[in-house]
Amino acid sequence: MVADPPLAAGFLFGAPLRAGHPTDPTNKVLWVVRTPRAGLPLQIEGQPLGATTPTVHLTEPANSGPGEIYPSIVDVPRAGCWQFTLGWGSDRATVQLLYQPI
Q1: In this model, does residue 73 exceed pLDDT 90?
Q2: 14 pLDDT higher than 90
């Protein structure tokens, strides 16, 4: 998927994404950012679309390569469409992901 604005993209491994903490496969997302990350972590904040709770907060370190990538496991507590705000340095982008029930 491509974020809005198109400064980041996510590649899903093990689709469909599933609510909870699935293990086989996990909710792995490889984030690729367009602008240099300058050694800064990726902040991921999410909530169900149209709601303020529950929330998910993740921080992924800038320790993977090649390029501007952040591997992550993005789990949510309940099924539905979730909106995530991605932040690294001064850059921000949003993306919506659909999670299925387990």
Answers
A1: yes
A2: no
- Beta-bridge mates of residue 71: 30
3-state helix vs strand vs coil in the chain, percent to 5: 0, 50, 50
Total Cβ atoms within 10 A of residue 9: 15
| Whole-structure pTM value | 0.94
Output the CA–CA distances (angstroms, integers) from residue 70 to 14, 76, 88, in the order listed: 17, 18, 10
- CATH 2.60.40 holds for 8-100: yes
Question: Is the predicted pLDDT of residue 69 greater than 90, yes or no?
Answer: yes
Q: What pLDDT, on a 0 to 100 scale, did the predictor assign at position 97?
A: 97
Domain ranges in the chain are: 8-100
Burial of 75 (0-12, 13-18, 19+ CB in 10 A): middle
**Rounded Cα gap, residues 27 and 12, in angstroms:** 8
Question: Do residues 89 and 38 touch, judged by C-beta distance below 8 A?
Answer: yes
What percentage of the chain reaches a pLDDT higher than 70?
A: 100
